[in-house]
Write a structure and sequence with these properties.
Length: 283
């Protein structure tokens, strides 16, 4: 069986060897020999920076078995009795980061996104951040507002691996925070501080979550996180705010909501810093 690749992320490699890791109906994780991950997905999922969308007619957990060897080179990949090509796949790129909207417009968009998230969480309260994660997230937002790099590092290191699942809530929140900070050249010291604090802690979280944190530290994010940051900040965004929030909410069981919370906490700190107001709760 030769599966065609429809599109791939900009950091998809030319060649790797590895083994199949956790597999689900629409996602197959490939554990690469160098300790990184590749991701194979069905066509209906959003783009990821290191993922390949496949045209398939059956769930991926019927095609791939954990532990099976995976080899990729020359535009082709093979795994057991399944193989595929990505020679004709388009390459997904996130929206470019350019001009910003005014502070007032950004504030209005952030508050609209927050209200949309809160409405969703009122319907699905089990998807709210765990209390211990929310407490640390608020500290993280306060540190960003005050420009307190040491406080930011302390909150971030405690968030790593905090929560349940393949991507714990604390990690998802940090990815969202980094998705906003990556748009801010003036936030270089904060990004460097987060990288210094987080890299030694990556071994304490799950392999899948470690992968997305590494990508985020390198400035690479999923399509929903990239489009939400763009919707809050760009003069002519790809999506309106409400649609970008809806697109992000479908990620995982609660990963989307967690990532949005982190992104909004970082975005809100921008205008809180300018007014000197407190950060407050993020949910």
């Amino acid at each position: 069986m030769l599966l065609p690749g429809l599109s791939l992320g900009s950091s998809w490699p030319a060649s790797v060897d590895g083994r199949i890791g956790p597999v689900f109906r629409r996602v197959c994780n490939v554990e690469v020999d160098d300790g990184t991950l590749l991701v194979l997905t069905t066509a209906d999922l959003p783009h990821l920076p290191r993922a390949l969308k496949l045209r398939v007619s059956v769930p991926l957990d019927q095609l791939f078995q954990p532990g099976t060897a995976f080899h990729l080179s020359g535009g082709l990949w093979r795994c057991g009795g399944v193989s595929g090509t990505f020679l004709e796949a388009s390459v997904w790129q996130p929206p470019p980061i350019g001009e910003r909207v005014s502070d007032d417009r950004r504030r209005a968009r952030v508050e609209a996104a927050s209200a949309h998230l809160e409405t969703y969480l009122d319907r699905w309260p089990q998807k709210r951040l765990p209390p211990e994660v929310e407490t640390l997230a608020t500290r993280l937002g306060l540190a960003l507002t005050g420009g307190n790099v040491d406080g930011l590092k302390r909150a971030a290191t405690t968030l790593v691996g905090l929560g349940q699942g393949l991507t714990p809530s604390g990690d998802d929140l940090l990815v969202g925070c980094l998705a906003w900070l990556s748009r801010r050249p003036e936030a270089r010291a904060w990004r460097d501080g987060l990288a210094e604090a987080l890299r030694p802690r990556l071994a304490t979280t799950t392999p899948v979550s470690r992968h997305y944190l590494r990508e985020a530290l390198a400035g690479r994010f999923s399509e929903p996180m990239a489009l939400l940051a763009d919707a809050l900040d760009a003069p002519c965004p790809v999506l309106p705010v409400w649609k970008a929030v809806e697109a992000a909410l479908v990620i995982g069981a609660s990963s989307g909501a967690d990532g949005i919370a982190g992104l909004l906490a970082a975005a809100r700190s921008d205008f809180n810093r300018s007014t000197g107001s407190d950060h407050g709760s993020i949910q």
